[in-house]
Design goal:
The complex is a heterodimer of chains A (247) and B (312). Chain A has ten helices and no strands. Chain A has 247 residues and is an all-alpha fold. By secondary structure, chain B is α/β, with parallel strands linked by helices. Chain B has two domains: 242 residues, P-loop containing nucleotide triphosphate hydrolases (Rossmann fold); 60 residues, CBS domain Like (Alpha-Beta Complex), CATH 3.90.1280.20. Chain B starts with a strand and ends with a helix. The relative contact order of chain B is 0.12. Chains A and B meet through helix 7 and helix 8 of A and helix 2, strand 6, helix 4 and helix 7 of B.
Chain lengths: 247, 312
């Protein structure tokens, strides 16, 4: 229940972070003097090979693709295995998701390259595997943690199964599921940077280039942008979560 | 009318309900009692097909329920359960209106129905309609739970220990409300409880179950007077049987005509003999004045009349 006068207030924090991110993308180049203090001997101080805006957009596209896939797959799998007819697959699905999470993304990248080649595709694949577990785990926890008497009542008064799912189960589990999506997104944003090691163009480019060339100014620029992006999205979700749990 | 004909239900080969045959007449309150795990809740869930019968048939007004659409069947039966099962993310009004919405009633009719039910349960529409279940007390939530069960105007009301989690005072006032409302709406009610005083108070007839089978099916007073076996006798509290029977009998049915001055201590004509006895013990008197709800003296109740019981 949002009250009119303060409807915008909760969004101030994510909006602030977003502005900070945009400011960094467009004006980081103006801060050469500052980076000079960090790396007095370097020839170039601002990452030159692509604009930060370009890198941010690429990064976002990869994250969006991976997160969209991970969320839809995780949500669908979580719903399927909590139905009476899908319950047999519950152990299998949670194991697969757990393996996906424990497998280091770098290793997935290394294994994916021979299959999918270099670039964005293997990166999306690795991120998808890595991001699957949080959504799935929270979908399962959210749906399985619902009070038994509420579900019994829903069926007992004559709601059809799909209706129970859409009108009762998902709305009640939404805060927990949303928390899972939030984790998936933040993890994906941070991990997408390693895609730069196999030729995907992301905000990880300056970081990798900086590490290779020993230029900590590049590293700092990449890290700063990735951090700001992650915080912006995370704080946006924070608001969203609070909005739907207010009662 | 509900008929169970040789109904059994097994869980992993173990019978929870076995060979159950029962007839529940239209408009009666049939209370199923028994110890935990005797199959009473299972029986209720067989009636609205939350569980399927392993064998046997259940008929409602002559129609086999196995042939009906399960969801449609459930919408014809109110269902109230112990922890209310109210939807926590919906307002009271939306909770009560859920079955009418499933039945696709027009919106104005749903609203009128919700209003009517809230008033029936003594919950003013203006202050309760927009509340969420978490803002209600236990008794209010349970009233809303029963109101939701009644909302679709079902022929049959299934109640699974609906007052089990309430404190004794709230429980008693809800029992009285149920009786008051039933006197107006005449639903067929199947009520499961393990509280025997509740059963004696509410039931037209009581079904006593033990290990999945019916031990006795009878009116409350006959259960007390002619228990079928030691189990029933035990269940209905050997030592307290006299008091339990007294609680079923009305003062009005035992009183004598008033002669001379009215005794100082009064009892209501609708009160039970048990309450009258308690008053006598408390005030150390052998005689009570019987009054109606308006306070008019109707007669006198000497202790001898209590011992004799209702006069035919």
């Amino acid at each position: 229940m949002s009250r009119r006068p303060s409807a915008l207030r909760p969004w101030l924090a994510p909006l602030g972070w977003l502005l900070l991110l945009l400011a960094a993308v467009f004006w980081l180049g103006e801060l050469e003097a500052l980076f000079r203090a960090l790396e007095p001997s370097a020839r170039t101080l601002i990452y030159p090979r692509a604009s930060f805006a370009r890198l941010l957009l690429n990064h976002l596209a990869i994250v969006a693709a991976a997160a969209l896939l991970a969320v839809s797959l995780g949500l669908a799998a979580g719903i399927l295995v909590t139905r009476t007819w899908g319950r047999d697959f519950l152990p299998l699905v949670s194991q697969v998701a757990a393996i996906g999470q424990t497998f280091p993304p770098v290793a997935v990248l290394a294994l994916a390259v021979p299959l999918l080649g270099f670039g964005s595709l293997p990166t999306v694949f690795a991120l998808l595997l890595y991001g699957l577990l949080p959504v799935l785990r929270n979908t399962l926890a959210g749906l399985q943690g619902l009070p038994a008497e509420v579900l019994e009542a829903a069926r007992g008064i004559g709601m059809a199964p799909l209706r129970v799912l859409l009108e009762v189960e998902l709305p009640l589990a939404a805060p927990v599921i949303l928390a899972g999506i939030r984790t998936t997104l933040t993890v994906t944003i941070a991990t997408a940077a390693i895609g730069s090691t196999i030729g995907a163009s992301t905000l990880g480019d300056p970081v990798i280039a900086g590490l290779v060339n020993g230029n900590s100014a590049y590293v700092l620029q990449g890290a700063l942008l990735i951090g700001l992006l992650a915080i912006s999205v995370d704080s946006g979700f924070d608001c969203l979560q609070r909005l739907i749990t207010v009662r | 009318m509900i008929e169970l004909d040789g109904v059994s239900r097994l869980f992993d080969g173990v019978p929870a309900v076995e060979g159950m045959s029962l007839r529940i007449e239209r408009g009666e309150i049939c209370v199923i009692v028994g110890t935990s795990g005797c199959g009473k809740s299972t029986t209720l869930k067989l009636l609205n097909r939350l569980l399927a019968c392993s064998s046997g048939t259940i008929r409602i007004d002559g129609q086999d329920i196995a042939e009906l659409d399960a969801e449609r069947l459930r919408r014809r039966m109110g269902y109230a359960i112990q922890h209310t099962g109210l939807f926590p993310h919906w307002t009271v009004a939306r909770n009560i209106g859920v079955v009418p919405r499933l039945l696709e009633w027009p919106a104005p009719r749903i609203e009128a129905r919700v209003r009517e039910l809230l008033e029936l349960f003594g919950l003013p529409y203006a202050s309760f309609a927009d509340k969420f279940p978490s803002q209600l007390s236990g008794g209010q939530a349970q009233r809303v739970g029963v109101a939701r069960a009644l909302a679709g105007d079902p022929e049959i009301l299934l109640m699974d220990e609906p007052f089990g989690a309430l404190d004794p005072i709230t429980r008693e006032s809800l029992q009285n409300e149920l009786l008051r409302i039933q006197a107006r709406i005449h639903k067929t009610i199947v009520f499961v409880t393990h509280d025997l005083d509740e059963a004696l108070k509410l039931a037209s007839r009581i079904v006593v179950m033990d290990r999945g089978r019916i031990v006795q099916h009878d009116t409350p007073s006959r259960l007390l007077e002619q228990p079928a076996n030691a189990f029933v006798e035990n269940l209905f509290g050997q030592g307290e049987r006299g008091l339990k029977r007294a609680s079923l009998q009305r003062v009005g049915a035992c009183m004598l005509p008033l002669q001379g001055a009215a005794p100082a201590v009064s009892v209501g004509a609708e009160d039970s003999l048990r309450q009258a006895l308690s008053l006598m013990l408390w005030h150390r008197t052998g005689e009570l004045c019987v009054r109606d709800a308006e306070g008019r003296a109707l007669g006198v109740l000497p202790i001898g009349a209590v011992l004799q019981g209702p006069r035919a």
